[in-house]
Amino acid sequence: MNVLRLGFENFRNLCPGEIFPGETINVIHGSNAQGKTNLLEAIWLFTGGHSFRGTKDSELPVLKDGKNAPAASLSMTLFTEGREQELRLELRDGRRSSVINGVEKKTGSALVGKFCAVIFSPEHLLLVKEGPSRRRAFLDGALCQSRPAFTRVLAHYNKALMQRNALLKDIPRHPELIDTLDVWDERLILFGTEVVQERAAFCKDLEPRAAEIYRGIAKNREEITLSYAPFGGAETKTEIAERFSEALKNARNADARAGFTSVGPHRDDLTLTIDGLSARTFGSQGQQRSIVLALKLAEADILYRKTGERPVILLDDVMSELDMSRRDYLLNHLDGRQVFITCCDPETVRLMETGRGFYVEKGTVRQDTDEKAGEVHAENETPTCESE
Ligand SMILES: Nc1ncnc2c1ncn2[C@@H]1O[C@H](COP(=O)(O)OP(=O)(O)OP(=O)(O)O)[C@@H](O)[C@H]1O
């Protein structure tokens, strides 16, 4: 799929306007705090997801006299499913509504599945830098997008886990309740086994793709591995269920004392290595950035294989800490994908062999005159918001 046009009105600091992106690389450049990420965020919201910066919907419309305006409006012309489609997203009083090809929908979630994108923002570096929960969230998020049925399985597992934990907290006051744990153990094993199998199958799919992309980014100088192997690497459904059941039994008394469930897929990790060493402990800033990028781009490829539509790639502030050859990979070797990259350095635009540049200043977005190399910005005069 390809974004052909994006329109924005009253959205954050962006001056009302529209852009016509190219179908390959689109570099959005400008100084700090001019509105580059806001533009990326406007595109992202068409996935139906929340802001990737954790902002509430009511805070997204433009600030006027210290208050957010009541409404913001975004529109997109998208080429998908073999034709042009018109999408509109309205944010009014913190609520979303949408219009898809002229048909009004009461919710913004009606857009889910219409527009697909994969986002990399600096916060995603926590996927390598922090503990296992970030990596589990990455796996589960990617699985929910590519296999919607997984969302239900995960919800059932989390519900059973919550109920088991509530029961464990009651046991010190009512020791006789310990026998009723069996019911919740059964449910945890039923859904947990499926969670583990789905994650393991996804990682098997993801690893060769991510490794190939990483080799491209690092110009074949480094190798990465991904490993998700809970319960001693058990593979079959029966094996996983047996080992999970055994682990729950062994941990039962300790869990009752602690008041929570200490074993299961909610404690799993995805191990990432670069040249055999833990990416979290030993990876440099550039290597950590590169491995997260490889995971995200591989996730996009898997989505493409499952849905037949290539997700749009949104890369926010990805260039800093990457050397020239890694930048060159992102700008010139992501063939067949529509990519939006934000950066401060106008030199980045000159490294791009084909694509479009957009210059953002004080919320005004202008397309560069030079289609190929994006010779800085079109007009000589400083663009300003009409409302200023
Ligand atoms: N609701 C809003 N209304 C008006 N302005 C806003 C709103 N939300 C954020 N801003 C402003 O938008 C400006 C641009 O933010 P943005 O994150 O897009 O910058 P950027 O160009 O990506 O900068 P950087 O290179 O530093 O990441 C900020 O100065 C911010 O204060």
UniProtKB/TrEMBL annotation:
Domain RecF/RecN/SMC N-terminal: from-to ranges: 5-363
Keywords assigned by UniProt, alphabetized: ATP-binding, Cytoplasm, DNA damage, DNA repair, DNA replication, DNA-binding, Nucleotide-binding, SOS response
GO cellular component terms attached to this protein's record: cytoplasm
Keyword Membrane: no
Keyword Zinc-finger attributed: no
Biased composition (Basic and acidic residues): 366-380
Subcellular localization(s) per the UniProt record: Cytoplasm
Alphabetical list of Pfam families matching this protein: SMC_N
A single GO BP: DNA synthesis involved in DNA repair
Region (Disordered): 366-388
Leader peptide range in chain numbering: none
Top-level lineage group: Bacteria
InterPro entries hit by this protein: DNA-binding_RecF, DNA-binding_RecF_CS, P-loop_NTPase, RecF/RecN/SMC_N, RecF_2
GO molecular function, one term: single-stranded DNA binding
Family according to the record: Belongs to the RecF family.
Protein's job: The RecF protein is involved in DNA metabolism; it is required for DNA replication and normal SOS inducibility. RecF binds preferentially to single-stranded, linear DNA. It also seems to bind ATP.
Name of the protein in its database record: DNA replication and repair protein RecF
Originating organism: Hominenteromicrobium mulieris
